[in-house]
Amino acid sequence: MRSRMKGALGLILLAGLAGLGACDWFEDQRPEEVTVLVTGDAGVTVEVITSKKLVAARTETGETRVQLLEADTAMVTIPWSETYNIAGDYRFFLQVANPDSPDPVVNAEVLLDGKSRYDQGGILREVPFRFLYLFNQRMGAVVEVL
């Protein structure tokens, strides 16, 4: 009798815990918007490339290559921000590059549904800041963009 009570109590406790944890299981975890914030030396112009239409693959060495199928390129003056709707695509690429400014200090931050997912800053020279998001996929550092 006592072991049945313990077993029943254990099942009730387990079901209760599973019910609490399952609440997130049924929510749609896909982000709907991306916000890009580019700050740093005020008045500096940087090149920003964004894309929601892309394919990405990892090489044998773990590096990531990205092919942009469609992209938007803009010369923007710091500080700058923009929000993009990625619902339906659930992927996003950002590149912030220095076209010709002498060693500007730049910070690029990316928020997915308001949560910071990327925050890179420093002197922006030859190597651009790059961010790649693909829902439910882990990718390494982007080394090549086609």
List keywords for this structure.
146 residues, mainly beta, five-stranded mixed β-sheet, four-stranded antiparallel β-sheet
Percent helix among the residues? 10-25%
Provide the spatial order of strands within the biggest beta sheet: 8-5-2-3-9
Structural class call reads mainly beta
Measured between the Cα atoms of the first and last residue, the distance is 70 Å
Tell me, what's the shape? Answer: globular
Average residue pLDDT: 80
Tell me the major beta sheet.
Answer: 5 strands, mixed
Radius of gyration: 22 Å
Low-pLDDT ranges: none
Give the count of structural domains: 1
Number of strands: 9
What does this structure look like?
With 146 residues, this protein is mainly β. The chain has one domain (33-145). It is built from 1 helix and 9 strands; from the N terminus they run H-E-E-E-E-E-E-E-E-E. It has one helix spanning 2-22, and strands at residues 33-40, 45-58, 64-77, 80-85, 91-97, 105-112, 115-123, 129-134, 142-145. The radius of gyration is 22 Å and the shape is globular. The model has no long low-confidence stretch (mean pLDDT 80).
